[in-house]
Design a protein that fits this description.
Mean pLDDT: 92
Structural class: alpha+beta
Number of domains: 2
Bound molecules: flavin-adenine dinucleotide
Strand content: 15-25%
Distance between the termini: 41 Å
CATH class of the largest domain: Alpha Beta
């Protein structure tokens, strides 16, 4: 999409702003627009020629912009927010003030009031009805324009210079800029070609912040067994995966085969291993466990059927196909491409007539269908990870203002901070909530400084 930023380029570095926002992704655009809406004079700096390069990739180009499953949760006060926060794991409560200030409903209102029709799909995933991430970006660019945010694309920031716990100036490819307050929204390290290459972490470290080691998350998983390659492209719906730490005593807390996590839904075989929503969602946990020992992924191909029910189902199928060879008797139960593999690992001869398969063999087959084991060896790297887990330590940020506790005039928002969620629109909601709060508080502080 050609973005209209004309007339705002090459601005003079002597021009005075109240707030400078670095990084024109979802968090930066929200922060800049909100600060300007509240009256601050704002400059948004982005190193790419265009804004929101990663945003355009989200939801496979459809942009799953938030997560509405819990937004209408009644009963207790803040029930929806609590559930949202629980889904983010142990760091989730950091988002509570941000989510109360600008949560899922406010996000949906924000886009709908600006003409973007939204729809809620399975699992509470919210998309534009147009299925176009460009339309989400268009709303944000209009928001910047409406509020007269000055934008400086194709401008790379190299350094933030600080003195006496305050940022004094930003050194960038177009010179130096000095202002009251700064909001840093440079993202994480994943999909670096979109612009987020981890530069923000280095600046933050230099300013004295602790960076929790950035690691790939929501990433496909590499599998040891070579046969997975034969299933490349096969997508399975309504399956369950369970994660076990197998060897490595510390990973399992001293217990081998300890269940660590499980997910139900859709997954995909790739040439190197596994991907798809449920795999991405367990990948963070798998990554943590892999650093401690071996990890087993057990696939239940028929989670809706208990062992006995699945056995009954097999008996019915075997009766129906009683004169067929084993390899030709599983068509009603499994996708074609999976049959060859299951037959191979069942230990039953592929040509054995099904009416000769005994109870013991059937029982082993049921076990295989419900516990199809694979060994995780690695997560795919940042170039294939949807997000980065890790980042600026939350202990050093005030969650009610998104303000650094170490640097007086520094605010942070989006993926640069040590907060992330599963797939389903959680990560963009983190950007909207933290971006909006940082923008509001930076504008407020600038106003107070002037008064
Ligand atoms: C393939 C893919 C699909 C995804 N799908 C979804 C989804 O459907 N739903 C969801 O919730 N999340 C999704 N995500 C995650 C989501 O896109 C990110 O969490 C989000 O973009 C983070 O926003 P951000 O503004 O913090 O950082 P970014 O979007 O990474 O933006 C940071 C910006 O800062 C700029 N920048 C960096 N360094 C400098 C510098 N030195 N000088 C100037 N500018 C700089 C970058 O160029 C970039 O434009 C997806 C991610 C990927 C990769």
């Amino acid at each position: 999409m050609k973005q209209k930023t004309s007339g705002m380029n090459n601005r003079s570095s002597n021009e005075k702003f109240d707030v400078v926002v670095i990084g024109g992704g979802p968090a930066g655009m929200m922060a800049a627009g909100r600060a300007a809406e509240l009256g601050a004079k704002v400059l948004l700096i982005e190193k790419n020629e265009e804004f929101g390069k990663k945003l355009l990739l989200t939801g496979k180009g459809r942009c799953n912009l938030t997560q509405a499953e819990f937004s209408a949760e009644g009963g207790s006060a803040f029930g929806g927010e609590k559930k949202f926060i629980e889904a983010l794991g142990k760091n989730g409560k950091f988002l509570f003030p941000g989510l109360l200030n600008f949560g899922v409903e406010e996000t949906m209102d924000f886009f709908e009031k600006r003409g973007l029709k939204l729809k809620i799909e399975r699992g509470g995933r919210v998309f534009p009805t147009s299925d176009k991430a460009q339309d989400v970006l268009r709303v944000l660019l209009n928001y910047l324009k409406e509020n007269k945010v000055a934008v400086s694309p194709s401008t790379e920031v190299f350094e933030l210079k600080a003195e006496d716990a305050r940022i004094k100036e930003v050194v960038c490819s177009k010179g130096k800029i000095s202002t009251d307050n700064y909001i840093v929204c440079t993202g994480g390290k994943s999909y670096a070609w979109t612009g987020s290459n981890g530069a923000g972490y280095r600046w933050m470290e230099k300013l004295g912040h602790h960076i929790v080691e950035p690691r790939p998350a929501l990433a496909p998983i590499r599998i040891k067994e070579k046969w997975v390659k034969d299933l490349q492209g096969l997508s399975l719906k309504n399956v369950k995966i369970t994660i076990f730490s197998a060897k490595g005593g510390s990973a399992s807390g001293g217990q081998n085969n300890k269940k660590q996590d499980e997910r139900f839904g859709e997954m995909l075989f790739t040439h190197f291993g596994l991907s798809g929503p449920i795999i991405l969602d367990v990948s963070k946990k798998v990554g943590e466990l892999l650093s401690l020992g071996e990890v087993i992924i057990s696939l239940d191909l028929k989670p809706a059927l208990e062992f006995a029910k699945l056995d009954e189902r097999l008996q019915r199928d075997f009766k129906k196909y009683q004169n067929k060879a084993f390899k030709n008797a599983l068509n009603d139960l499994l996708p074609k491409r999976l049959i060859e593999i299951i037959v191979k690992f069942s230990g039953i001869s592929q040509d054995k007539p099904v009416n000769q398969i005994n109870k013991n063999e059937r029982s082993k087959l049921v076990n295989l269908l419900k516990n199809f084991k694979m060994t995780a060896i690695d997560l795919m790297d940042f170039d294939q990870a949807i997000i980065t887990t890790g980042g600026v330590d939350l202990k050093e940020i005030d969650p009610r203002a998104m303000k650094s506790k170490l640097i007086d005039n520094l605010f942070l928002a989006g993926e640069i901070i040590n907060l992330d969620g599963p797939t389903g629109g959680y990560n963009l909601q983190i950007c909207w909530s933290t971006g909006c709060l940082a923008g509001e508080k930076a504008a407020e502080l600038s106003r107070l400084n002037k008064a």
